[in-house]
Amino acid sequence: MAHxxxxxxxxxxxxxxxxxxxxxxxxRHGATIGVKPVKLHDLWANSGAVPTPEQxxxxxxxxxxxxxxxxxxxxxxxxxxxxxxxxxIALADRSALAIIEAxxxxxxxxxxxxxGVWCDQADLSLExxxxxxxxxxxxxAAAIIARARTDDIExxxxxxxxxxxxxxxxxxxxxVLNGEVFFGQDRIAALEQAIIESRAPFMV
Length: 204
Hints:
Order of helices and strands: EHEHHHHHHHEEH
Helix content: 40-55%
Strand order of the largest sheet: 2-1-3-4
Distance between the termini: 24 Å
Oligomer: single chain
Strand content: 5-15%
Low-confidence stretches: none
Structural class: alpha+beta
Radius of gyration: 16 Å
């Protein structure tokens, strides 16, 4: 059975746009997904990437086109300039880790977080908004948020980030299969092909 390590950042539009496609692809092939929120700025510091506002204008314009293209391809209506972005997504991402540590499945919750930012104009830095999405996806919001605030959970997020860096992830979303990294939601088809073929990973 294939296993995919899924490195993500809750407010990343491309994480959100690829999320359901990744889940559906994994379901088709009986693959498991290891959900691993990361500290994106630490990942970028290693890969040389910078936040969108710090990019050259031509790159910013192209990223806007890519965002529209991906949303159109996935059939998802998004706000190109959401009311609450960027925000501190740490508690929302740490809540996903708390779900996993409690033995739960965080995939529906992660999708709800992304939808909150990019479709619903919600401020996912607020505990009330996080709690609402935890409850809506079947979790005990108070217990999960309390656990998410612990140092243990932050330590897991830091380890995820170190793993992503070791795997040569450039940014998010990054999917790692047998040590081979696939960067970006537009690489899900290539990831699926690798699973179907059961081929050896391409490595440097």
